[in-house]
Structure prediction request, 88 residues.
Amino acid sequence: MPHTLYNATDRTALINSLGKMDILICSYGLLHQAGDLLLDKSWKMVILDEAQAIKNAETKRWKYVTQLNSKCRVALTGTPIENHLGEL
Prediction:
């Protein structure tokens, strides 16, 4: 698939056209906006950069991230864990 910006207007078509070797880079803001589309897809891997942005379990962002259907998840952060591993 050629390079396509995820902020394109037809997100449903873009997500449905992704093949098993394609990569989708999505901001947390777009995840919040198009979360239901992303939940319907099966992902090989989800990589969460700046994972401290999802530590609040009361947010929609956290809800969508934890419900993504993925075989593998990797959480990256440059922020020190201050209290406990449950923050991630």
User: Anything to note?
Assistant: The helical segments are 11-17, 28-39, 60-67. The radius of gyration is 14 Å. The mean pLDDT is 82.
